[in-house]
Automatic annotation (TrEMBL):
The family this protein is said to belong to: Belongs to the Mrp/NBP35 ATP-binding proteins family.
CDD domains: Mrp_NBP35
HAMAP family given in the database record: Mrp_NBP35 (MF_02040)
InterPro entries in the cross-refs: Mrp/NBP35_ATP-bd (IPR019591), NUBPL-like (IPR044304), P-loop_NTPase (IPR027417), YlxH/NBP35 (IPR033756)
Name of the protein in its database record: ParA/MinD ATPase like
UniProtKB keywords: 4Fe-4S, ATP-binding, Iron, Iron-sulfur, Metal-binding, Nucleotide-binding
Length: 335
């Protein structure tokens, strides 16, 4: 009986995900409703066709999960690799301002050490691009190659692409979902990413269109989740992580940023919010990669910590994340 209830709950969750997916916009509301009904019918059929033996089997939930994944894939755009890119790692956060871009630029710069131009950094935050400033590009703009593909700008050995390269500093992007999807498509597929071993993608906060679209259209190798260990941020992070896990995308681990503050005088590490990130990681069954303290940034030079002083305490934290990502990718690729 408990298993049956789980199955029905899974069906409801599936419908919830379906109705949130970008396809609802493509198909229009009435077509989307028909689609949802078809999915419900199909789910109910598989629910009844499982029979009593399936309900008694310890694998019945796996059967439903497999069916969910099959149905979710139905009718959605097929995932296509980004030409020239081997692995894609998304840096995500449920809340804004928790340090996602900081982690993305530093991990990309750390990975690029010793292998320049093999690591890419894509700024998928169309409305609030921060990579041009954080990677110190000034007002440079990308050129176009003979195939009409934009050539990423390179700094600190990292190939970068951002909407910010195409806009003046004071321009605002006032676009609806479909235009954002189009811009994302162009920044992934109409850019010369040749020979990129790993593309780090800095995503906008939350679990909106951009993130879903990336999950549905490109093969994401893994996700690094950034959060602060504060109750509200953790609660939203938990929801975001659950959605990512439902979509079957592996979470590399959690980075707990601004978790403590180090006293300038006695250098004591003072926790600010408690150990919520540790608990979140344990509940989700994913590693807590590292905890980064809040540091006093009075420096006017904007450079990734890893470039400014690779031996600093903060840079070492980012190196730890980069090593973690590398180990994760080699274990995935060895499978
Ligand atoms: N550990 C830290 N100590 C001090 N300042 C930090 C730390 N981490 C990030 N910051 C600062 O906090 C601000 C927000 O960081 P960042 O832009 O990386 O967050 P974000 O999650 O990408 O934001 P958004 O949601 O707007 O994309 C930046 O000014 C950054 O320099």
């Amino acid at each position: 009986m408990i298993i049956s209830r789980n199955i029905l709950q899974s069906i409801r969750q599936l419908i919830l995900i379906e109705s949130c997916s970008p396809c609802s916009r493509h198909y229009g509301p009435s077509a989307c409703q028909l689609r949802q009904k078809a999915i419900l019918d199909s789910c109910q059929k598989s629910y009844f066709s499982l029979g009593t033996s399936a309900f008694n089997s310890p694998n019945s939930e796996d059967v439903v999960k497999k069916r969910q994944a099959e149905l979710m894939a139905k009718g959605l755009p097929k995932k296509k690799a980004i030409p020239g890119v081997k692995d894609i790692i998304l840096v995500v956060s449920a809340k804004g301002g928790v340090g996602k871009s900081t982690v993305a630029v530093n991990v990309a710069s750390a990975l690029a050490r010793g292998r320049p131009s093999k690591i890419g950094l894509l700024d998928a935050d169309i409305f609030g691009p921060s990579i041009p400033l954080m990677m110190n590009f000034g007002d440079l703009t990308p050129e176009v190659n003979k195939d009409n593909h934009m050539i990423p700008l390179v700094n600190y050995g990292v190939k970068c692409m951002s909407m910010g390269f195409l806009l003046s500093e004071s321009s605002a992007v006032i676009w609806r979902g479909l235009m954002v999807m189009k811009a994302l498509e162009q920044m992934t597929r109409q850019v010369d990413w040749t020979d990129t071993e790993c593309l780090i993608v800095d995503t906008p906060p939350g679990t909106g269109d951009t993130l879903l679209s990336l999950f549905q259209t490109v093969p994401v190798s893994g996700v690094v989740m950034v959060t602060t260990p504060e109750t509200l941020a953790l609660q939203v992070a938990r929801r975001g992580a659950t959605m990512i896990q439902k979509l079957g995308v592996p979470i590399v681990g959690i980075v707990s940023n601004m978790s403590s503050v180090i006293c300038n005088n006695c250098h004591t590490d003072i926790p600010i919010f408690g150990d919520g990130s540790e608990k979140l990681a344990a509940d989700l069954g994913v590693p807590l990669i590292t905890e980064i303290p809040l540091t006093c940034e009075r420096d006017a030079i904007i450079k990734p910590a890893i470039v400014q002083d690779p031996n600093s305490f903060k840079a070492q934290k980012f190196l730890q994340i980069a090593n973690f990502v590398e180990n994760f990718l080699s274990s995935q690729n060895n499978r």
